[in-house]
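Sync notes, pocket subgroup
Present: LS, DG
LS reminded everyone that the earlier model was apo-only. Rerun requested with calcium ion included. Inputs:
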Amino acid sequence: MKNTHLIIGVMILIMAVAGCAKDNRYHKSALPDPASFKAHFGDMDLDGDDLVNWEEFKSYFPQATPDIFKALDGNEDSQVDHDEWHEFKEAHGMRDHD
Ligand SMILES: [Ca+2]
Ligand SMILES: [Ca+2]
């Protein structure tokens, strides 16, 4: 009986953690006016290292705030890579058409 309760408790915990992770993804998408951040990755990446850092992002989008950059930077390495950028665009239904 005790074991069953433990298993159910662990399952609820896992579901709660998974639910939070999912919520975080939605939070990341809830950016102010995401449509104004439409750009090609290569256009933002000024030094061509396939990563967009805060300076590059800020110079491309002067209206950007660190919060927005943090929201884009999914793995928190202070760089936005291709995957993170496309994840952001897909989250808002913005796809490259060219
Ligand atoms: Ca770069
Ligand atoms: Ca990153």
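DG: The domain at 32-98 is CATH 1.10.238.10 (Recoverin; domain 1).
LS: Residues 73-75, 77, 79-81, 84 surround calcium ion (ligand 2) (CB under 6 Å).
Action: DG to write up.
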